[in-house]
Design a protein that fits this description.
- The complex is a heterodimer.
- Chain A contains 7 helices and 10 strands.
- Chain A starts with 9 loop residues before the first strand and ends with a helix.
- The longest helix of chain A has 16 residues.
- Helix content of chain A is about 30%, strand content about 25%.
- In chain A, a hairpin with a 2-residue loop joins strand 4 and strand 5.
- Chain A has a 6-stranded mixed β-sheet with strand order 6-7-8-3-9-10, with helices on both faces. In chain A, strands 2-1-4-5 form a 4-stranded antiparallel β-sheet.
- Chain A is of the alpha/beta class.
- The N terminus of chain A is likely disordered.
- Chain B folds into 2 domains: about 220 residues, no CATH class; about 220 residues.
- Chain B is built from 23 helices and no strands.
- In chain B, helix 3 packs parallel to helix 6, helix 5 runs antiparallel to helix 6 and helix 17 crosses helix 23.
- Classes of the chains: A alpha/beta, B mainly alpha.
- At the A-B interface, helix 2 and helix 3 of A face helix 1, helix 4 and helix 10 of B.
């Protein structure tokens, strides 16, 4: 879990960010800034560019143009990867490693000395402790999603990007996840959650609404104000 | 936040490798694995033994040997250039490495130097690539020893060296294109340049290109000398230098391309395991980014306003199929042409004393047929659409066979030109003209059968085991998968039959066409009686 102290520098910064897929413009000169300690809800209709933005910031997509910085470093650079944890909407897990083996492996890749203490807490909170020695390849979608959350949250990070995390989770899992996201922000991480679940807005400190690859609304998570922008 | 250096990254990757290996060794069924290895060894030995005879054992004449010495380096060099061009294009789309999706998400996004991760994956892939090159080179050297003068051991050794370096060159070209994020256009342009250079070498019997220089290594048993040895050494050194440069730049590869490739290759391997030909084709097209054009090359010729009566039945399918062809990307059209030329080249070689090459001609036409039957395949991909059409499923499928047959025939015409140039006899032309239409129909019918059959069912795959004969299932599945391409091979086999006959060649070829024509009729009846299953 992040325990960084807050600073004024933006943890995540996009300036004139553009991403094209051939003729289709997914992100159109996007301007965006997220500070440490913020819990930002990223909302918008399908195709608005939410996932594209998160994947660009994670280094999975190459921006077509513009600037995208994570903790002042180019997104996708080794320093940015050390600072940023990305949890995608489709859990990518090894077929032949158990949950515990995943944790150990990723801990080693992130330079941790041994197994992270937070891993066992996360397994407990997300009700996965009993399945930690099982292969996630045999899990349901919800359990795979929980495994991905454990892996994304047990490593060190100062920026956390989560794409549609509530899909497939049971109500208890959703509540536990919200608590974990709030705790990460309270500990000083910049947390961005892309979601269609507008009830999450009440937990967010700020809301960013995307439409056609641009920021249509940036401000307090006010449901009524947001509706006017999204309609 | 911790940034991990190369050593720590390597040790983490080694730990993962060890953990996975342990699990693999625990899961593996050794009796089954040894049995499969035993079967593979027997089949491979039989294929090499009997295959060698099929490629002909008659010694070449002095004039033919002179041609081999003169044009051999150019011809093999052209093959090397084509392989390098293919490698460049693959690299421009993120190849040749294919990571697991989880490796992209967890390892490439971890603070570990990407070069460390990718070099490890590359060295693992290189071992397989080099083995394939060595085996193919050894088999080719062995085949050459039957017909060309020189020691068999020398041919095999040169074949292994050439095969290894040729595949290494193509693989390194792909890595260079990937690591330098070369655009597909640039990769295509460089590839065309290399192919053009090698083609000029072939036409002028020169040895100026990289491919020709490397090819001299393969032909050392019949064309040795200081110049040949020096050329081969230079080409080998260049290949190794390019490989080293490629590995040095590998860390700059695009993660975006790696992720797309990881996903598609994973699905492709799964589809190949299920022997699902159609899914393999669709995924391969996605991997090669062969997407339909948003602007068609040509119009269908019938617009709503000018139509006097509704287009129904056969005409609707014919038009729909050509509309699909009009949106083919350029490389798919080019592939159709190349497959036609390949078929023609193989048939010309079959006529000139290597009858086994009818196999290559048939397979090339079958592949052309698979590309051409896209309209039919789209119907099988989306049966729910056909469920709302008041036409019987089988009849609908049959209506989608006409345009593909015409398309394969067009590709064959390009091959016919090659036969005309290289076979040099009127009889060869007559025989080739005779098989044109049946071959187009057989390739189309075979391809359509492969698509309509789909992947072998679980029932078929377990049928033998239930009877206590697991080999029976294997044989049935093999027959089922081999039958569609075999139709195209049978339809061009009359060329080999005629070549062996001497006088009365055309009549012999006509006689040999009876079986493939009956097979086409059988497949047409079978497709026409298919019932729609949307479940």
């Amino acid at each position: 879990m992040s325990n960084l102290g807050g600073t004024t520098r933006a943890a995540l910064l996009a300036h004139d960010l553009r991403k094209d897929y051939g003729d289709v413009v997914a992100l159109h000169d996007l301007q965006l800034e997220v500070a440490r300690g913020e819990l930002v809800a990223l909302v918008g209709p399908n195709g608005a560019g939410k996932s594209t933005f998160l994947r660009c910031a994670a280094g999975l997509l190459d921006p077509s143009d513009g600037i995208l910085l994570v903790e002042g470093r180019r997104a996708g650079s080794i320093e940015a990867r050390a600072a940023l944890s990305y949890i995608g909407d489709n859990a990518a897990l090894y077929d032949d490693l158990s949950v515990n083996e995943h944790v150990d492996y990723l801990a080693a890749l992130h330079g941790l000395d041994g197994r992270p203490v937070s891993a066992d807490q996360l397994l407990d909170v997300l009700n996965l402790a009993d399945r930690a020695d099982d292969l996630p390849a045999r899990f349901s979608r919800g359990l795979r999603q929980k495994t991905a959350l454990v892996l994304g949250l047990c490593r060190p990070f100062s920026v956390l990007l989560v794409d549609e995390p509530f899909v497939g989770l049971d109500p208890a899992g959703q509540e536990a996840l919200i608590d974990l996201l709030c705790a990460a922000a309270d500990a000083g991480a910049a947390v961005v959650v892309a979601t269609h679940q507008l009830s999450f807005l009440r937990h967010a400190s700020r809301c960013l609404a995307l439409r056609d690859g641009e920021v249509a609304y940036a401000g307090p998570p006010d449901r009524e104000a947001l509706d006017t922008f999204l309609d | 936040m911790a940034v991990i250096d190369g050593t720590a990254g390597r040790s983490a990757l080694r730990a993962l490798h060890r953990a996975r290996r342990r699990r693999y060794l625990l899961d593996v069924d050794w009796v089954d694995a040894l049995y499969k290895a035993y079967l593979t060894a027997i089949v491979a030995a039989a294929a090499v033994f009997f295959g060698s005879r099929l490629f002909g054992t008659d010694r070449v004449t002095a004039a033919e040997l002179a041609d081999v010495r003169r044009f051999g380096p150019g011809a093999l060099g052209l093959a090397v250039a084509v392989a390098i061009a293919a490698g460049l294009r693959s690299g421009s789309r993120g190849g040749p490495l294919a990571l697991e999706p989880s490796d992209v998400t967890h390892v490439l996004l971890a603070p570990v130097p990407r070069a460390t991760v990718l070099r490890r994956a590359a060295s693992s892939q290189a071992r397989g690539v080099l083995l394939v090159g060595a085996v193919v080179g050894a088999v080719a050297g062995n085949l050459a020893a039957f017909r060309l003068p020189g020691e068999r051991a020398a041919w095999v050794a040169c074949g292994v060296a050439f095969g290894t370096l040729a595949v290494l060159a193509a693989w390194a070209a792909a890595l260079i294109a990937c690591g330098s994020r070369m655009s597909t256009r640039t990769a295509t342009a460089v590839g065309i340049l290399l192919i053009g250079w090698s083609a000029a070498d072939l036409a002028l019997a020169a040895r100026s290109s990289f491919g020709s220089a490397l090819a001299r290594l393969a032909l050392l048993p019949v064309a040795s000398g200081p110049a040949a040895i020096a050329g081969a050494i230079v080409a080998a050194v260049v290949t190794l230098a390019v490989t080293a440069a490629a590995l040095a730049r590998i860390g700059d590869s695009s993660v975006e391309a790696a992720e797309r490739r990881a996903r598609l290759v994973g699905e492709l391997r799964f589809a190949a395991t299920l022997q699902d030909v159609r899914t393999v084709i669709v995924l391969h097209r996605q991997l090669a980014q062969q997407l339909p054009r948003s602007r068609p090359w040509f119009g269908s010729g019938e617009r709503g306003g000018r139509r006097s009566q509704p287009v129904t039945g056969l005409r609707a399918c014919w038009r729909r199929d050509w509309q699909g062809v009009a949106r083919w990307p350029g490389n798919r059209l080019l592939r159709q042409l190349v497959l036609g030329l390949l078929a023609g080249t193989a048939l010309a070689a079959a006529w000139n004393g290597t009858p086994a090459l009818v196999l290559a001609a048939g397979i090339a036409l079958f592949l052309a047929g698979l590309d051409a039957t896209e309209g039919l395949a789209q119907e099988t991909d989306h049966p729910i659409i056909a469920a709302g059409i008041p036409i019987a499923w089988g009849r609908l499928l049959l209506r989608h066979l006409l345009a593909p047959a015409a398309l394969v025939l067009l590709a064959e015409l390009a091959g016919f030109v090659v036969v005309a140039v290289f076979s040099g006899t009127a009889t060869a032309l007559e025989v080739s003209a005779l098989v044109l239409l049946p071959a187009a129909l057989a390739a189309t019918a075979g391809a359509a059968a492969a698509v309509v059959l789909g992947a072998p069912s679980a029932t078929l795959q377990t049928f033998g085991s239930q009877m206590g004969l697991p080999e029976l299932s294997m044989m049935l599945v093999l027959l089922r998968q081999v039958f569609p391409p075999a139709m195209a091979v049978l339809a061009v086999a009359p060329v080999a039959v005629a070549e062996r006959t001497g006088s009365g060649a055309v009549a012999a070829a006509a006689g040999a066409l009876v079986v493939p024509v009956l097979a086409v009729a059988g497949v047409v009846v079978w497709i026409g009686t298919r019932k729609l299953r949307t479940a």
